[in-house]
Write a structure and sequence with these properties.
Layout: H1 2-47, H2 49-56, H3 78-83, H4 91-94, H5 103-118, H6 123-137, E1 142-149, E2 154-157, E3 167-175, E4 181-189, H7 191-197, H8 199-261, H9 268-291, E5 303-306, H10 307-319, E6 327-332, E7 339-342, H11 344-360, E8 366-375, E9 378-385, H12 392-395, H13 419-429, E10 433-439, E11 443-450
Parallel strand pairs: 6-8
Antiparallel strand pairs: 1-2, 1-4, 3-4, 5-7, 8-9, 9-11, 10-11
Helix pairs in contact: 1-6, 1-8, 2-5, 8-9, 10-11, 11-13
């Protein structure tokens, strides 16, 4: 449960970080939009016609009242072009400049050059235009305009005060044709205004976070309840398994008493076999209880086992479950593997399950071959049968708990679908691997590989 809570906490943290990253990117995108908007507003304010109309051409020579006429060269005759005298602006050479282009801009920039040389720059007019643009596009923003030289010296300012604890955006724009001066706009935008534009995104992000957190919480509750039910079921199963020991011990005592009084030599082996089977069943119960102890690692008790005898004994015991079954059994041991070091109880349970399935899912005269082989430090036990085989569709689910194979055209066999599931688990506990291959109508091969 602690691991489940940890994983859920990591998932929640990842969710919150992703939402924070998403909102941060949206915030930065909004800042970029404001930056572009301020840049356009400043450019518009500098290039606006109001700068020319404020006296740039007539302030220093009001009596002459000069007149500005702009005509396209296509509208003028060669004689008319020659008749005009005065300053000439060559657009081709001006294209190398980084200033904004256009005839009106060139005249404005030329006029600004004159004012920067002879007079002060009309910051009041620029401030008035820029204020209208900013208030129209970015309400509640404060700003300051500065006229600076190329050496970053402030020449003039509109003396406005901006709030430094807000989002600050600084834009610079060169003025004049020689680019010796530039206008710097420092704009402070209230963070709440930016978040107001992101209001719907914040609402969506908040709702998504709440929904996902609720889903995670619901999953935790489901996992907790499921775990609680499983623990209750395990406890009930362990209690039932433990309670089996008492009647088994009683049955063993009864068989032992009968065996002492029995005089018929034909019955004595049967009684001894019954006692041995009860002892094995008691040992299996002990191993199951030991495996499922809460908060205790699985202990594998390895001993030296005579493998051929273990296989033959498992075959004899399974044959008693199918008294009318006709089959052939063969042990193939070409390398003469005899003693191995493993858990005898778990290995015997695996062999019993696989041999029982080989007889259960086959017709009479089936052949069962157990082949032993060794490779490096591992040995394999392959149990092959010529039975019904397993359909391809069923092979993907084979070994799942409570899953049972239904062979085509064959009767449903009794069972609970726990045999192969138990084999897979037991082999895994012994640090081994379990594989199989099967062809429907031909038979199957199950292979246990152990260290």
């Amino acid at each position: 449960m602690n691991r489940t809570i940890l994983i859920s906490a990591i998932g929640i943290l990842a969710l919150l970080l992703s939402q924070a990253y998403w909102l941060t990117n949206m915030y930065l995108d909004k800042i970029a939009q404001y930056t572009d908007l301020i840049d356009k507003s400043l450019s518009y304010s500098i290039d606006n016609e109001l700068i020319l109309q404020s006296g740039l051409f007539g302030e220093y020579n009001r009596t002459n009242k000069p007149k500005l006429i702009i005509k396209s060269a296509d509208e003028m005759t060669p004689e008319e072009i020659k008749s005009y005298k005065g300053d000439t602006i060559v657009l081709e050479s001006d294209s190398s400049s980084h200033t904004r282009k256009g005839i009106s801009t060139l005249f404005a920039q030329s006029s600004i050059d004159f004012f920067l040389k002879e007079h002060s720059f009309p910051m009041t007019v620029l401030d008035s235009i820029f204020k209208n643009e900013i208030q129209k596009n970015i309400p509640h923003a404060t700003y300051q305009l500065k006229l600076c030289s190329r050496k970053e010296q402030t020449i003039d300012s509109n003396h406005r005060i901006y709030k430094e604890n807000q989002q600050i955006i600084t834009i610079t724009h060169p003025i004049g044709t020689k680019e010796e001066f530039y206008i710097q706009a420092i704009v402070a935008i209230p963070p709440q205004q930016i978040f107001l534009h992101l209001f719907y995104a914040l609402i969506v992000s908040f709702l998504m976070t709440i929904i996902i957190l609720y889903c995670l919480y619901y999953q935790l509750i489901v996992i907790r309840n499921t775990r609680k039910r499983l623990l209750q079921q395990q406890q009930a199963i362990h209690t039932a398994i433990h309670d089996l020991k008492a009647p088994l011990n009683a049955a063993y005592s009864i068989l032992d008493f009968i065996a002492l009084k029995e005089t018929d030599n034909n019955r004595k082996p049967l009684l001894q076999t019954g006692k041995m089977q009860i002892r094995k069943l008691t040992g299996i119960i002990e191993s199951i209880l030991n495996v499922h102890k809460e908060r205790q690692n699985i202990e594998i008790k390895k001993t030296q086992v005579f493998l051929p005898e273990l296989i033959e004994e498992a075959n004899r015991e399974i044959a008693l479950l199918f008294p009318g079954k006709k089959y052939r059994f063969e042990l193939n041991n070409p390398t003469s593997i005899r003693y191995i070091h493993t858990d005898p109880i778990r290995l015997e349970r695996c062999l019993r399950n696989l041999l029982e399935n080989a007889l259960k899912y086959s017709d009479d005269n089936v052949k069962i071959t157990v082949s032993l082989s060794k490779h490096d430090n591992r040995f394999s036990i392959a149990i092959q049968d010529t039975g019904w085989g397993i359909p391809i569709k069923a092979q993907k689910k084979l070994g799942k708990q409570f899953y049972r194979v239904q062979a085509t055209g064959k009767e449903v066999q009794p069972g609970y679908g726990l045999g192969l599931c138990s084999v897979k688990q037991l082999v895994k506990e012994m640090d081994g691997s379990f594989t199989f291959r099967s062809t429907e109508g031909t038979g199957s091969v199950f292979v246990i590989t152990l260290p």
